[in-house]
Amino acid sequence: MFCFRACGRPQPFPQPLRIAQPRDGHSPPGPLTFSLWDYGVFGLMLLVSTGIGLFHGLSKGGQKTSEDFFTGGRRMAAVPVGLSLSASFMSAIQVLGVPAEAYRYGSKFLWMCLGQLLNTLLTAHLFLPVFYRLGLTSTYEYLERRFSRRVRLCGTVQYIAATVLYTGIVIYAPALILNQVTGLDIWASLLSTGAICTFYTTIGGMKAVIWTDVFQVFVMLSGFIAVIIRGLLLAGGPARVLAIAANGSRVNFGDFNPDPRSRYTFWSFVLGGTLLWLSMYGVNQAQVQRYVACRSEREARIALLVNQVGLFCIVSSAVACGLVMFALYKDCDPLLAGYISAPDQYMPYLVLDIFQTSPGVPGLFLACAYSGTLSTASTSINAMAAVTVEDLVKPRMPALSPRRLTLVSKGLCEWGRVPAHGRAALS
C-alpha cells in the first residue's frame, strides 16, 4: 500500500514546476493546453501516415487480389512485420496507462517482458507452423478444417463483435483522457484519426498497415525518450531518480507473493501474462494475419523475435517514464492535489507540465499516444475485413473475380470504421 501527501512542498528542481505549490490556500493551476506547434507536430504524423498509405496503394499498380490486400502477397520481410506486431500491441491505452501503473506500483511491470518472451517462444514453435503451413488468411478457416463450418462461423461472428467493441474503446479512451487534461476536442480527434486511419488502410492494404506501424513505433519511442530526457534533467539525473524510486518502493522486482489477490506480482506477469498474450499472438486474427504475410516460415519466426525486441524497448521506456514521474511528483501527487481526476491522466499532465517552455514537444507525445491508436485501429479494421471476406463472402460468392473481390475487401475496410466509431460515440 502506498501513501502520497495531498500536496506537500516538493524538493527543489533545476527549474520550477507548476506542481511546486502548496494546495492549502491556493487554487490549482490553470488548464494546460496544446499550442499550435503541438498540433502541427501531430498533424505531421497524420500526414506521413497518409502518405505511406498512398504510396503502397498506388505503387506497382496497387493490390490486384485480395491476397495482396490482406497479406501483402505473402512477400513481407521480418523486420517491418515484427515492428508492426509491436506497434499494434501498444495501443494508446498502454501508452498512457503503463507509465501511470509504474508510477503507482513500481518497476515490477517490467516482468511483463519475460511473459512476452515466453509467449513469443511458444507462438513461434506451436502456433506459427500450423497457420503458416496451411496457408490460411483467416484463422477461423482452421476451425472448419478441424471441426465444422458452423464452428468457424461462430468464431468469425464473435471475433467481429469483440473487435468492434475493442476498437471503439481504443479510439475513444485516449480522446477522452486528453480532452479532460488539455481540452482537446473529442469529436475532432475521433473523426480526424478515424478518417485517416481508415483511408490509408483502405488504400494501401496490409503493406500500408505494416509500414505505417513501423513509422509509428519510432514516433512512440521518440515521445517516451523526450519525456525521459527532460524528466531526468529536472529530477537531477538517473542516479537521483533511481534513489528516489528505491526509497519509495518503486524498484520492486522481488515481489514473488503467490497470493492471487495481489495486483501485480512476478507470477501474475509471467504466468498469467504468458497465457493472456498467447491468446493474442498465438491465435488472434490481427497478429496471425501479419506473420503469415512473411515470405517464409523462418522470416515469420524472426518477425516474432523482432516484435519481442520492440516490445521490450517500448515497455521499458514507458516504465522509465513512470519512475521519472514518481521522482518529480513524489511530494505532490497531481491526483490527490486535484490537478487531474483519474490515474490515466498522469502522463499527459506530466508532458504539458515539464514542456511548458518547449513548443512542439507536447505535440510529439500527442503523436506518440495517437500512434498507438492508429496502429491498433488499422490492424483491427484490416483483420475484420479479412475474416469477413474469407469466412462470409468467398464461400457464398465463389465466382467473384479477383478484381471485384479486392474492391469488396476495400469497401469492407471503409465500412469497418462505422461500427467501431459508433461504439466510440456511444461511450
TrEMBL record:
PROSITE patterns: NA_SOLUT_SYMP_1, NA_SOLUT_SYMP_3. The keyword Signal does not apply. Its main location: membrane. One of its GO terms (cellular component) is plasma membrane. The chain crosses the membrane at residues 36-55, 76-97, 109-132, 153-174, 186-203, 215-233, 264-283, 304-329. It holds the Pfam family SSF. The keyword Cell membrane applies. Signal peptide: none annotated. InterPro entries: Na/Glc_symporter_sf, Na/solute_symporter, Na/solute_symporter_CS, Sodium:Solute_Symporter_SSF. One of its GO terms (biological process) is iodide transmembrane transport. PANTHER family: SODIUM-COUPLED MONOCARBOXYLATE TRANSPORTER, SODIUM_IODIDE COTRANSPORTER. Belongs to the sodium:solute symporter (SSF) (TC 2.A.21) family. This is Solute carrier family 5 member 5. The lineage of its organism: Eukaryota, Metazoa, Chordata, Craniata, Vertebrata. The gene is SLC5A5.
